Amino acid sequence: MAMARGSSGLAYPERFHAAAAAYAGFDGSPPDPNSSKFSNEVALLLFALYQQAIVGPCKIPKPRSWSPVEQSKWTSWNGLGNMASTEAMRLFVKILEEEDPGWYSRASNFVSEPVIDGDMNHNPKAESIIENGNTFPETKTIPIENGNLSDAWDKDAVSESFGAVSVYDQWVSPPVSTPRLKARYEHGAAVIDDKMYIFGGNYNGRYLSDLQALDLKSWTWSRVEVKAAGGEASPVPVAPLAGHTLVPWEGTKLISIGGHMRNPSESVQVMVFDLQMHTWSTLKTYGKTPVSRGGHSVTLVGTSLVIFGGQDANRSLLNDLHILNLETMAWDEVDTLGMPPSPRSDHAATIHAERYLLVFGGGSHTACFNDLHVLDLQTMEWSRPTQQGEIPSPRAGHAGVAVGENWFIVGGGNNKSGVSETVVLNMSTLAWSVVTTVQGHVPLATEGLSLVLCSYNGEDIVVSFGGYNGRYNNEVSVLKPSHKSTFQSKVIETPADSVSAVQNATNATRDMESEYGMGQDGKITEIVMDNVESEPTVHL
């Protein structure tokens, strides 16, 4: 929940005023819950957020009248406390977008800014963007200058130059042929063989349900055909959704878990697409199914999916943990030990050494985080270890992918702007470092983008797609991570006595701390979370 998720390319506060105009009327008066077309709860919340954004925290005394409407309006506004005006604006737009996706079309007549069409390219020379097609216009790349992603497009850089790229740890744009697929954010992404699959997402306040594939050899998009299952006359309709997670399974299947929908079910939805049969189906699961949610994290660990956090259909933030065994299809709600992360959504999670679940960042309704939490999946105990190196700024809506023991984090926002740094965490040392920084209003400094790891010409590459940073993006960017010690922070070279000092460091919140194991060379080699009689143990 980092940057505001408006439906236009307008910047704040103009986007908020456009939304308020669409809902409250064009006289500048606050929305009236008494005459609202929404439910009482939503109308009161919109009223309170409007007041918080325009006036600030509620300073007026509680009304003495017996009017239940006036009492409810005051209670709703007062309940926002000291929420920042920018956050109130963001939430107002987000809620209006969810409740009334067409608000911007009504407000656009009063807005001088042009609407960025998701079916148009965002480059100076517009290109048609069709979800499926066979034409292949001119290719483009983004040059890197001084380690930064330039806003300029080098039309002379063709595909063979990308294939021979020798630079590491810098973002470039591959020669993706057009037509490109519709811009979006909060979509699902997964790689199987030589294709990156994109499913669903959010564009202009409307949830999507298409399944697309990017061929990572030819860099061409195509729409994946969906067929009817055996015995059915037509394909099973898939509800449009966003904020879900797409996971590759068994080399031939894509599993979609959760997501926000217009008409959400009570429990989380688990769908599977068979790439051989080209059919969608709902997975039948057993046990206590988690409540419906979006903005959660799903991590594949062996043959199980670990689901953490997110936001439910009532906009309540979650910090519960559930595990789905893909062999038995049985859910297990896990009771953990230690101090779990606070309720949040739009965080990133990954697995290290097939044992430790790492959760970084995310957001609440009022703040973004940069905390790091680790769950030992053997003991089911949370800890909050001390982070080392260049600790990233708070963010939410970022994306992450693990390359060996290095966890790359890209994008996200902090309630003001998109985060421009690509950072990496060495999961053995818990040391952060900055890989590169992009400049300008580019898709990498955005929220709701996807990030996957795949192979290109026999080397690992990290591929990003989409996102939202005031406009909806459909750009593809590629980073080739170095396999040298580039990401190994200076902490790794710290002598043994300094490592002991790190081991003795405690967190101000007194959360359970992790300790570090050392190899014979005096370097930190693994995370150790085992506890014996409440005392940390160091494994050598």
Description:
There is one protein chain. The protein is α+β, with helices and mostly antiparallel strands. It folds into two domains: 13-25 and 34-108, Acyl-CoA Binding Protein (Up-down Bundle), CATH 1.20.80.10; 170-480, 6 Propeller (Neuraminidase). Helix content is 13%, strand content 31%. Strand 8 and strand 9 form a beta hairpin. Helix 1 crosses helix 4, helix 2 (40-54) crosses helix 3 (68-78) and helix 2 runs antiparallel to helix 4 (85-99). The model is unreliable at 1-9, 109-161 and 484-540 (pLDDT under 50).
Please outline what is shown here.
The protein is built from 7 helices and 32 strands. It has 540 residues and is α+β, with helices and mostly antiparallel strands.
* CATH fold group of the largest domain: Neuraminidase
**What is the percentage of strand-forming residues?**
25-35%
Helix fraction, binned, reads 10-25%
Shape: globular
Topology (SSEs and partners):
Layout: H1 14-24, H2 40-54, H3 68-78, H4 85-99, H5 103-107, E1 144-145, E2 148-149, H6 159-163, E3 171-172, E4 188-192, E5 195-203, E6 206-215, E7 220-223, E8 245-249, E9 253-257, E10 270-274, E11 279-282, E12 293-294, E13 297-301, E14 304-312, E15 317-325, E16 330-333, E17 348-352, E18 356-363, E19 368-376, E20 381-383, E21 388-389, E22 396-403, E23 406-413, E24 421-426, E25 431-437, E26 450-456, E27 459-465, E28 476-479, H7 496-504, E29 515-518, E30 524-528, E31 531-532, E32 535-536
Parallel strand pairs: 21-25
Antiparallel strand pairs: 1-2, 3-28, 4-5, 5-6, 6-7, 8-9, 9-10, 10-11, 12-14, 13-14, 14-15, 15-16, 17-18, 18-19, 19-20, 22-23, 23-24, 24-25, 26-27, 27-28, 29-30, 31-32
Helix pairs in contact: 1-4, 2-3, 2-4
Organism: Nicotiana sylvestris (Wood tobacco)
Pfam family, one: Kelch_KLHDC2_KLHL20_DRC7
GO molecular function, one term: fatty-acyl-CoA binding
